[in-house]
Design brief:
Number of domains: 1
Distance between the termini: 17 Å
Number of strands: 16
CATH topology: Beta-galactosidase, Chain A, domain 5
CATH class: Mainly Beta
Strand order of the largest sheet: 1-2-12-6-5-4-10
Radius of gyration: 19 Å
Largest sheet: 7 strands, antiparallel
Strand content: 35-45%
Amino acid sequence: MTATERVGFHKYTFPKTDKAHIMLDLVHHINGSGTGVKLAHIQIKDKQTVTGYRITSSVWAPNRQLYFAMKFSKPFTSKTFHDPKGQPYNKSKKFVSDFSDFTAEKVKAIFNFSTEEAEAIMVKIAISSVSMKNAMENLETELPHWDFDRVKAEANTKWEKELNKIIVKGTPEREAKFYAALYHNNIHPTINHDVNGEYRGMDQEVHKTKDYTLHHVLVMGHL
């Protein structure tokens, strides 16, 4: 996996099979149990494009909204929606695999593929606190191509620039500990506005930045 500022870029390698699976898990939460998830929605735009959102709540971060847009590098052959226990959802005793929109308190989606030996399937996923439309705009603006190695190299260059702002000398073990701590220190706060400048404030209203970058730590509440 690698990333741009607003887009995660995954790469999964499979054997030759007609049972390759990639799961979209909207149940997992930072507390591990998923109890903070209040509502989740998945919308299938086409066999390579999926959008949706999840609303979570906790004592310190009530009504946190996270929207996403994701694209696969090849079409999936089928999909299923599952409950937190892994059982396929059904509606009136009919499985909802043919639905293009699905909303539930907690939901996981399984996307199925046929692959050749050592075939890689890539997934791009962008997030937004404002809307699915903004998430898609983030994805298409920051990562319009499928060159995984290019994005990885660009991310490495940015991290090298940040970590080289402080130079220390010591034993390999001490240097490793220092730069690991410096790396973790730079993970948060994160950019909290979309490429068009919009963001959702603590008042739940949509605002727009003007000539500045908005950073925040409350996005951790979406995890």
